[in-house]
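Sanity check

After download, print the first record. It should look like this:
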Amino acid sequence: MKKELKVGLFAVLVLVVGWGVVRYLKGSSIFSKTNTYYAYYEQVSGLQPASYVVLYGVKVGSVTNITLDEDPSKGVEVEFTVDKRYKIPVDSKAKIFSDGIMGGKAIDIEYGRSAEYISDEGTIQTATSTDLFEMAGSEIDFLNEKIASVVEGLTVTLDSVNKLVAANSESLTSIMTNVDGVTSNVNTMLAKEREHLEEALASLSKFSKSLGDNSEQVGGIIDNLNKFSGQLVEADLVAELEHLVGEINGILASVKDENGNIVERVWKVGGMYTEAIEQIVYWLEKAAAVANPTQREVLEALIKYYNTGDLKDFDDYSVLWVKDTKSNVDVVNGFIENYGDPLGRKASWESVVNFRD
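Expected structure tokens:
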């Protein structure tokens, strides 16, 4: 092979490699096919050729060219390529964001949902985003404004204080003079009462000496107090008193109405133990429905008592119960077992059924 041909082939190879290196440095894939898209921004915030283009966080292309229009008010044209495998819906948006903590910029494609796709050499919509550094800058500006406002307020306050002090300097001088006078009077009074104070201190000294001389007796008194308090603890008197007070409070609470007045809590339907008494009445009514006429009158009188809670109604029932001497079935029913109450005023409920055989 001729030397000139070898040189020519080498030159072509160098050009091809150089072309590939240039495309690689520009962020373009050397062998893959791509589509080119254009986006327009008011400002690109440090975006550079070869910056990444990502879709769902995955690199799918790169920025190939950034051009500022001759009329800057028209914004910046950004040309970038995307692998042809990824079709971009027409409602997608290209947003510039910070790619890493070092502040490098990249384009993130917010993938749309349209069934129509942007053609090659087409234009994609853009969106703005606030990165970490811009947020920090805005927060710093806000803090600066707040600090300036606080400093201004403090300045106004100090000016007001200075004016107040200047306007009332005579009054402040008078107050200090009065304080000096009061101090002088106190000193004079202490000088006059010095003898009495010395006598009081001497009496205190005698008292403390007397306590020292009688330390054994004082110690005995303290020991007796300790023993007495120990006996109280061992007897658990405090706990018993607290328990007794709690029971008394519970009793008082149960016999007071909403206004704090003591009222009688009657055992009847709608009163105390109403749920249990309602069951008693329920079964008595069942019994009355099948009893003979005489015994039905007795049971109805007992039912009336349970509904009213009136002891007069219980007396009426008791009279009728005593008179019924012919029924084959007899029943003892009511709050009649008062043997557990020393005063015989509170009774336990009892019910007994018996019959003639």
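If your output differs, re-run the checksum step. Summary of this record's structure: Residues 165 and 171 are 9 Å apart (CA to CA).
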